[in-house]
Amino acid sequence: MRALWPGRAGHGFVAAYVVLLIAFGIVPTCYAVYFAFTDGNARFSGLSNFSRAAADFRFVPAVEHVALYLVFWLVALVVLVVGLSLLLYELSARGVSKALRFLYYIPGALAGAAGVMVWLFVLDPSVSPVAFLLRAMGFATFGQVVAPGHLPVLFTLIAFWTGAGGWIVVMHGALNNIPREVIEAARIDGASAWQTARRIQIPMLRKWIVYMVILTFAGGTQLFVEPQLLAQASVGVAGRDYSLNQLSYDFAFQNNDVNTAAAISVELLLVGLVVAALFVARSGFFDAD
Amino acid sequence: MTVKFRAIGAPGPGRPRRRAGLLALGALLALGAAACGTSSGKANTPSTGGSFKTAAQTGGTLTVWVDSDRLAAAKLYQKAHPEVKMDIVTYDGDANGSNYLQTKVSLFNRTSSGWPDVVFSSQNNETSWAVQAGFAAPLNKGLIPQATLDGWATDANAPCTVDGTVYCLRNDLSQTVLWYNDKLMKQWGYQVPTTWEQYQALGEKVAAEHPGYLVGAAGDTFAPEIYLWAGKCGANQITGPKAVTVDATSAACTKMATLMDTLIKDKTLSTSSVFSSDFDKNEADKILMMPGPSWYGGALFQGTFKTPAGQLGVAPMPQWSGDSSPSVGNVGGGTWLVSAHSKNLKASTDFVTWVTTSDDYQGKLAPGFPAYTAAAKTWLAAQQSSGYYADDITAPLTAAANQVWAGWGYGQFSQEAVWAATVTPGVNAGKTIVSLLPAWQDSIVNHAKADGYQVATK
């Protein structure tokens, strides 16, 4: 006898997610798009909100800040996450891999804001546990450490520390999915660890790396918590309009201009989508193996 | 006792699950309708305040938002008025210009509900947006008698006044004075300077004779309010509800900036924040003098630096020699706002009047110099009798209360944030303040324009 509604348990599980996705993903996005193309009196306003945002004196610097941060962040992430994952995979035979994976994952368990607070202490030479390092680099005060030119590197450090552990665990799982026979065959053929990594493991990880880049690119363009907290804690040196999301927040709540704020959000969404599409198209992300 | 006390963000009283589910569904549908429908946007619809229409006065619970320092005030009022049903909520008081209040009011305006009846803010420029947002109720148009308002110190309610209408009540004054270490001054045979020229000369002397000691600090966001405001530098003179004159490169600005540069170079003017762990650890016990607001005495020297009793002296702020009109700066000073949407205006007004004028709170408990003159007298007497200060603090603080230079205004844009983002990094990188004045000017102009101000420059 056939079931009345085959796979209903599965649909049930998916339904809960779909409801949340609609409520907190699609509806707000729809709302933002609606705001971005209307004015304060709900009349269609074309691209005027976009041009107002672009003409604002804070816009270009914010784009530059976010772009620079993304370069540092993405390069650091790809190189170090892949490198550390390969190292962990090599170590897995020796039994320390589990402990290391757990260790890497701990910072990710700290909420974003709490992670930033930890770093605010680490970066202050007068209280930092690594004050000797900061002093060796010529920094005597917190103000010198958080100088505007250092911010992309500092935000990268914070983001890497809070976010990379999770990706290392994911990559480790992906590495474990590569058939043992392929690695064995390479070893038998005399490939070194480096050659195995370069010619077999990294190419086979390509889709996971693309997946990581797409998600972290979109996440990186949303830079907000780090500069916002730093602006509060660093006597304002970081500025409250450092990133595009902060600028959007400023438009909404400082200038009472929700429409321009929404225009910036929509731009960020578009950039994320375009970059994702490029990566997917170039990497054959959806091609069947 | 009917007091209810919770922190913002704390969960409210529980609701039956079914109702919560219905609410969630309702919210979802409402969001969906808003997203796809043609709801009327409410942004950019400033209220002028002149056409103040009270909400239906249905009474009920008086919701009061305070910061942790003002919690004592609200609790004391509740104790004295047990018949008033109160919901006391603590929030950050907009400390460091967090914009929490503005953000929340903006959201409440969209949902047309949720406004607190009375709110305290540690930022004295709240009126600049709160009036535009239609949040602040006009207080001198029937809510508070003029005779009561006349009790405030000269110009104390200037940050609260837009076009002659008073929209908030000043809690405390933050006039600047010169704090000094009486013990060290006597020990080293120095005179407390009365002019800026003497102040600079003494700073240079200290650099030579007692290196490591400080005559001031300029590492905080409010450094321009202590030095440049006192020196009559007209960096942001608010000339109308949405008009500002910016002249950050004038002779007065350059003169004071040069003094600061000289002392920063000599390392007698610290470039660290007086609230930083760095300052607390390395410099707090090396203060010979420090110009700063009235609240420095209790909050900073006694509270944070733990300066021993009997050492801290207060003198009038130095003046440029030859200047016949004394001027001082100002750093903060909180304000109380009554919501224009309050359904309990009488209780709200009673509360703000009590909390700003009462001797029991302002005179005896408040941490800062009360803006209400009668309470300030009681406060000064209490401070003086505590025996903490080395000399008479009444005369210099009272005189300074009426000398805050009126050429510096309270615009919507944060003067402190502008300085921090424009000047502080440059100073940290070894540039002079004088060389950064044009960039400071440009940044103020840009921020003022972004906030919709008509900007005039000189």
UniProtKB/TrEMBL annotation, chain B:
Checking SUPFAM superfamilies in the record gives: Periplasmic binding protein-like II
Keyword annotations for this protein, in alphabetical order, are:
Signal
Q: Which domain of life is it from?
A: Bacteria
Signal sequence span is 1-35
Q: What is the protein's name according to its record?
A: Extracellular solute-binding protein family 1
Species assigned in the record: Catenulispora acidiphila (strain DSM 44928 / JCM 14897 / NBRC 102108 / NRRL B-24433 / ID139908)
Tell me the classification of the organism that encodes this protein.
Bacteria, Bacillati, Actinomycetota, Actinomycetes, Catenulisporales
